[in-house]
Design a protein that fits this description.
- The structure is a homodimer.
- Chain A is globular, with a radius of gyration of 21 Å.
- Chain A contains 14 helices and 14 strands.
- Helix content of chain A is 36%, strand content 16%.
- The first copy, chain A, folds into two domains: 96-122 and 227-402, Rossmann fold, CATH 3.40.50.1100; 124-226, Rossmann fold, CATH 3.40.50.
- By secondary structure, chain A is α/β, with parallel strands linked by helices.
- Chain A has helices at residues 57-65, 101-107, 126-139, 152-164, 178-185, 198-211, 223-228, 231-240, 257-271, 292-299, 324-334, 343-357, 363-377, 416-421, and strands at residues 20-25, 31-32, 47-51, 96-99, 112-116, 144-148, 167-173, 190-194, 215-217, 248-252, 281-287, 338-341, 387-391, 410-412.
- The first copy, chain A, has a six-stranded mixed β-sheet with strand order 4-5-13-10-11-12, with helices on both faces.
- Strand 14 (410-412) of chain A pairs parallel with strand 8 (190-194) of chain B.
- Chains A, B: Belongs to the threonine synthase family.
- Chains A, B: InterPro entries: Ser/Thr_Dehydratase, Thr_synthase-like, TrpB-like_PALP, TrpB-like_PALP_sf.
- Chains A, B: GO terms for molecular function: L-serine ammonia-lyase activity; threonine deaminase activity; threonine synthase activity.
Chain lengths: 425, 425
Amino acid sequence: MTTVIPTSPSTGTTVDLGPAVALSCRECGNRVALGPFYACTECFGPLEVAYEFTTSGEALREQIEAGPQNIWRYAPLLPVPANIADTPNINPGSTKLVRADNLARELGMKTLWVKDDSGNPTHSFKDRVVAVALAAARELGFTVLACPSTGNLANAVAAAAARAGIRSVVFVPSNLEQQKILTTAAYGGTLIAVEGNYDDINRLAGEIAGEQEDWAFVNVNVRPYYAEGSKTLGYEVAEQLGWRLPQQVVVPIASGAQLVKIDKGFQELVSLGLVDEAPYKVFGAQATGCNPVSTAFKQGHDFIQPVRPDTIAKSLAIGNPADGPYVLDVVNRTGGAIEDVTDEEVIEGIKLLARTEGIFAETAGGVTVATLKKLLASGQLDPNEETVIFNTGDGLKTLDAIAHVVGPSATIAPTLSAFEATGLA
Amino acid sequence: MTTVIPTSPSTGTTVDLGPAVALSCRECGNRVALGPFYACTECFGPLEVAYEFTTSGEALREQIEAGPQNIWRYAPLLPVPANIADTPNINPGSTKLVRADNLARELGMKTLWVKDDSGNPTHSFKDRVVAVALAAARELGFTVLACPSTGNLANAVAAAAARAGIRSVVFVPSNLEQQKILTTAAYGGTLIAVEGNYDDINRLAGEIAGEQEDWAFVNVNVRPYYAEGSKTLGYEVAEQLGWRLPQQVVVPIASGAQLVKIDKGFQELVSLGLVDEAPYKVFGAQATGCNPVSTAFKQGHDFIQPVRPDTIAKSLAIGNPADGPYVLDVVNRTGGAIEDVTDEEVIEGIKLLARTEGIFAETAGGVTVATLKKLLASGQLDPNEETVIFNTGDGLKTLDAIAHVVGPSATIAPTLSAFEATGLA
């Protein structure tokens, strides 16, 4: 993360982002007014949204339960205008919390759930964060939605902007798989293929953000709002369990923001009286080919040593994760742990989840399932405590990862005798 | 459809399929007991499920509204046991009804909705019909879930069986696109690649159904139950509109069962007092490369002349649609129409829906959008009446169809000056 404060469009009006009242520095606590800022002017630390919630307890719960079947039921807890559900949105969220008895049985666990976020409109959790970023961007006066991305985020931004009726500009590596290019290009926004790796593209996006004052780069200049979208994963899990917290959660780590925000969501529900306070442990999952947070956890560090990613779990391949230190805080505070798994284990994880629960996850989901298995084997995760794992994307988008390990059981001529000869009857 | 009555497993117990009381012939009305039958023993006509509903009006509405957010909220109206929601299921349904104001504006329409069934667990409406077929198959004593398929159905069967903890056997053409093979194979069931076209595979499936008495072929020997799953599309649209019927619907036609069952769902809601009786028109959509029902409609026939399909809309490419005559009945009775569109129009339809509403449809959805446009142009569909179109699948599964028409706006070096030189800033 750079510390440049980008220019911002002058709105000339009061910003209405619901219960959000300021941005506050996660390091020094310094507060600034709501705006397109992401770094503290005092200490260069990252900013996050600060709230003054006006409702709590039973009244809030009733308000949420009467809301729409998407993330806007939690609008009173998000940096969005109160009427957000009435604006054109792709309305992510309210994805399934699947009771995973078959998988639990195979792993010797008592109660296991899969929060399956592949059910979102563009089939990843990115729809949540983009929806919140879009709401804030509109309120802050931006007219273009942009991002650097290698996949899921590109899809989510292009789709959300199309429905909102605003322009999108998405930057992707020119060597990206054809299927990811097509899936983003279909929405008809501006798609720029860049001859470089993700770091090159991210740097270019930062430069353009400084030049184009009407452009909201969702994960750059409106990042504090964007990141809050992941709180809704925590809210939904708690509500779907009947307004209580699970005892253990396993969350994949890319930038780390998702894990941190799920914890933040749980904490808010406790402080607002929506769930009873109860101990829970947060576990993190990485691929061994990009395991800077897992390494720091195991070595007892409170800082992250960047790595150069080399894993099939491309949606988790952030070598210098911005929220890494905060992930360590959450995991250590709650008594969880962080593990990493090989690409072979990732593939086995994808297959295991698909075979037992009929959920076909992208590689990030394979990382999470494989990490769950490893944490059970090491005794760090308790098989008898209620556990929720997060599947954040769809296997349809990472077919290449399994192309060499799955296929037809047999290929036959179209006759009954040919079928019977296979021995598969 | 053949008229062979396959063997069936002997259950030895009473079959509990909720409000379903018999199978009745759609031609002669002859009734037979609930079982794995699909053809009338008197006249060889197709069988369908007959019900005795025990609840209606306000009581039924309250029961539905208190139910789960999936098709099982309509269990009192389906051929499934009352406790179906408690059994392991992939729980399809409750997909979004999207208010399509942007698309309506482009087409000069007043009120347009898209029922977006790509939000189902395996991203097509097939999850609905398979879920009902699975419920009936289990109750009838079958132990294996099977199907011939070229895509969406294969995914749905493999996923549903995995979660139910039973074996699946899926037959696909060996020349199917690699991505469709992988997506089905991921779930770990038996996948048989057959050297032949869909007709060859369908015939083989019928032969195997006669041999394997424990196998339920969802679209063969338990087809009457399977087809009922599409009624839930009609129920959901009416409930999502606030318990009323739309004035016009546009539905894609493959076998035609979906269109017929949406109408059946509407009719049931009227007769049960859940919606007010009101006139509505049902329109059908086909690809010109497989337009036997559209042709029959235009020629004023009440029978279907089979065709050899040649279209990119493969999920609609059924040259001899079993429900074709019933589609004609519904469309003529309600005052609707049937149109067909070229592959070029299909692609334009996909792009139009994605660009305006952020919904990336498979080719079948492109057929529906393009047909809507054509029906408006010809004056057959009224732009001022409230209209619902059905998107039944996901663009991620038919990427090949758009590969030659969408792509990056520009490819650049990773520098600010290279970006500015594109003129896209």
